[in-house]
Design a protein that fits this description.
Rossmann fold, 3 domains, eleven-stranded mixed β-sheet, six-stranded antiparallel β-barrel, 18 strands, disordered C terminus, binds adenosine-5'-triphosphate, binds magnesium ion
C-alpha cells in the first residue's frame, strides 16, 4: 500500500476535538477542498477515523484590519504571502464519519465515531481503501459502477455497488446544463458493462449515438415502438377519443374494462375492443345509431401512431441491451402514453418473470410524475416506484425541477446525484441530503459543471460525497446549438423541410390522433 499523504494535525479549540468534529491544522503548503476525505490516525496502522472537510479558514494575526490599515498609511508591504510566518496557518474542520479498527485477520471493522481524538493526532489524505470502506463503495471490477472521483482526490475512485444501488431507485437533479444527462450516459456505459438491460426514455435524442456505440437500439415511437391498447388505462383511452357522450363513454369504458379482465399477457387491440363494444352495446340496449357513433369514434384510435402491436420486450431485453426510445418531436400527450404504457408493460413482464431485471430511466421526470396532480403516466410510474424494487425494475429519474415532483417519490429514491441547483429547489430536496453539512448544501448552487453531491442511505452510499463525474466513452448528444453561427450560415431551403434530424415528420403526414389531456 502507498503511504498516505500527511497533511496536518488535530488541534484543540473551545469546542473540539469532540466525538463528531475535529479541527485540522494544515501543514504549510498543504491544501484541501470542501467535501474532501481525510483520515485521522488514532493508533498507527490499527485505528483511524475518516472525516470529511466541512469548512476551513486562515488564521493570520499579521493581516488584521488595524495592521493592514497601518501598513497602508506607512506604505509598507504586507508579509502575508510568506509561508514561513510562525503565527500564520490554515485550519479546516472535519465531520467525523466512521471509525475503522483493524481486527485480527487483517480486517477493518467499522463503527460510529465514538472517540475523542487527542489533539496532536496526525491527519492524512484518505486512502482508497479506507474511503471505500467507510462510505460503502466497492473496488472496481466485479459489480462496481465507477462514476468518477471524490472532489479534490484524483485517486479516490467512486465505485458504487451495483447490487446495492440498482435494486432501488436513483434520482439525478440539477439545473439545466449541469451534467445530468452526461452522468446518465456514464451510468449507461457502466450498466452495459455489467450486463444489465436498460430502457431509456430519451426526450432530446441525447443518447442515440451512445445507444449505437453500446450495441443497443434506438426505437422511434409510432414506427419501431408502439404500445398495446391494452397497456393503457381507461382514462387514457377515453382521452384519445373525441366527443364521447355519457352513454358512449359508459359503453367504451365497460368494454375496455371487461377486456382487461379477460385479456391474457398478450393483451388486446382495437379490433377486440370493437367486438367487445358491440356486446356491451347489446347488454345496454343501445340503438344502432348510437352504436355506429361509438364505433366511428373508436376508429380514431387507429390514427394514434403510438398505439399498435407493441414491441417484444422479451426479445429486446437481452443482457446488456440498451433500448433508447428516441422521443424527439413526440407530443406531450403521446410522451405520457409511452412512459405510462412502457412502465406498465415492463412491470407486468417482470411480475411474470418474462424479462430479466432491468433499469428504466426517464429524463424530465417532472413531466411524468407531476407534484400534486394525476397525469396518465403518473399512476403507473408510482406503481413501478412502489413495486419495482420487489420485481427488479430500477428507475432512474432525472429532473431539473424536483419541486415539481411528488416529495414522496423523491424520498423513496435511495441513491441521489445532486448537481448545481437553483436555491429555490433546495427545499424539495430536504430529507435527501443525508449527512451533508449545511456548508456543503449552501454551496450547491455553485457546484461546477460535472460535479455533484452524491447521497444515499446505509445500504447504498453511507455518507454524502462530492463527486467529479468521469469522462464519457460514448458520444454525448444533444449539445446546445450555436445560435449565432447557425443564423449566420442559414440558407432557407424551400424544397426540403426537415423537422427532425433522422425521423420522418409523421404527424403532419398522417393526422395524428390527439390527446385531450
Ligand atoms: N462530467 C462531465 N465532464 C465533462 N463535461 C461535462 C460533464 N458533465 C457535463 N459536461 C458538459 O456539460 C454539458 C451539459 O451537460 P448535460 O447535457 O449533461 O446537461 P443536463 O444537466 O442534462 O442539462 P439539461 O437539463 O439542459 O438537459 C455537456 O454537453 C458537456 O459538454
Ligand atoms: Mg439533459
Amino acid at each position: 500500500n502507498m503511504p498516505a499523504e500527511f497533511v496536518g494535525n488535530v488541534v484543540s479549540d473551545e469546542k473540539t476535538p469532540s466525538y463528531s468534529t475535529v479541527l485540522c491544522h494544515l501543514l504549510p503548503g498543504k491544501t484541501t477542498r470542501p467535501g474532501e476525505l481525510l483520515m485521522v490516525e488514532i493508533e498507527e496502522g490499527l485505528h483511524y477515523s475518516l472525516g470529511r472537510v466541512r469548512e476551513g479558514r486562515e488564521v493570520n494575526p499579521y493581516e488584521t484590519a488595524d495592521l493592514s490599515h497601518m501598513r497602508g498609511l506607512l506604505g509598507l508591504e504586507s508579509p502575508s504571502k510568506r509561508e514561513d510566518l510562525p503565527r500564520k496557518f490554515k485550519v479546516v474542520s472535519l465531520d467525523l464519519l466512521e471509525e475503522l479498527i483493524m481486527e485480527e485477520g487483517n480486517n477493518w471493522r467499522l463503527r460510529e465515531p465514538q472517540t475523542i481524538i487527542p489533539a496532536g493526532s496526525k491527519i492524512f489524505k484518505a486512502t482508497e481503501e479506507t474511503a471505500a470502506l467507510a462510505v460503502g463503495l466497492k473496488k472496481n471490477g466485479n459489480g462496481g459502477v465507477d462514476i468518477g472521483n471524490v472532489v479534490g482526490s484524483q485517486d479516490l475512485r467512486v465505485v458504487l455497488d451495483a447490487n446495492k444501488v440498482f435494486p432501488r431507485h436513483v434520482l439525478i437533479v440539477g439545473t439545466t446544463g449541469t451534467g445530468k444527462s452526461w452522468l446518465r450516459g456514464v451510468l449507461a456505459e457502466e450498466i452495459n458493462a455489467l450486463g444489465i438491460p436498460q430502457v431509456n426514455i430519451d426526450l432530446h435524442g441525447e443518447a442515440t449515438e451512445a445507444a449505437k456505440e453500446l450495441g443497443g437500439q434506438n426505437l422511434i415511437p409510432g414506427t419501431t415502438l408502439t404500445v398495446k391498447l391494452s397497456s393503457l388505462t381507461e382514462p387514457e383511452v377515453l382521452g384519445l377519443i373525441p366527443y364521447l357522450h355519457e352513454l358512449h363513454e359508459q359503453i367504451v369504458t365497460r368494454a375496455f374494462l371487461e377486456l382487461k379482465k379477460k385479456a391474457g399477457p398478450e393483451g388486446f387491440g382495437l379490433d377486440e375492443l370493437l367486438r367487445e363494444v358491440d356486446k356491451v352495446g347489446q347488454q345496454f340496449g343501445a340503438k344502432p345509431p348510437t352504436m355506429s357513433i361509438v364505433r366511428a369514434r373508436l376508429e380514431a384510435l387507429r390514427y394514434v401512431r403510438v398505439i399498435g402491436k407493441g414491441v417484444n420486450w422479451a426479445n429486446l431485453l437481452k443482457p446488456s441491451a440498451f433500448i433508447n426510445i428516441d422521443c424527439r418531436g413526440v407530443s406531450h400527450g403521446e410522451l405520457q402514453a409511452i412512459a405510462g404504457a412502457v412502465g406498465r408493460e415492463l412491470l407486468g413482464l417482470r411480475m411474470r418473470k418474462m424479462v430479466p431485471p432491468l433499469i428504466l430511466s426517464i429524463d424530465e421526470a417532472h413531466m411524468f410524475i407531476p407534484y400534486g396532480e394525476e397525469s396518465p403516466s403518473s399512476q403507473v410510474l408510482r406503481e413501478v416506484i412502489r413495486w419495482g424494487r420487489h420485481y427488479g425494475i430500477c428507475l432512474i429519474l432525472i429532473t431539473p425541477s424536483p419541486t415539481d415532483i411528488d416529495r414522496k417519490i423523491i424520498r423513496i429514491t435511495n441513491t441521489r446525484f445532486i448537481f448545481a441547483i437553483e436555491p429555490d429547489q433546495l427545499d424539495a430536496l430536504r430529507g435527501v441530503f443525508a449527512d451533508a453539512p449545511e456548508e456543503i448544501i449552501y454551496r450547491l448552487p455553485k457546484l461546477e459543471q460535472g460535479t455533484c453531491l452524491l447521497t444515499g442511505s446505509k445500504e447504498t452510499v453511507r455518507h454524502a460525497l462530492l463527486v467529479k463525474i468521469k469522462a464519457r466513452k460514448t458520444t454525448h448528444g444533444g449539445a446546445t446549438p450555436d445560435i449565432i453561427n447557425e443564423v449566420k450560415n442559414f440558407k432557407a431551403n424551400p424544397e426540403k423541410v426537415e423537422t427532425k434530424p433522422d425521423q420522418a415528420s409523421y404527424k403532419e403526414e398522417e393526422g395524428l390522433g390527439k390527446w385531450s389531456h
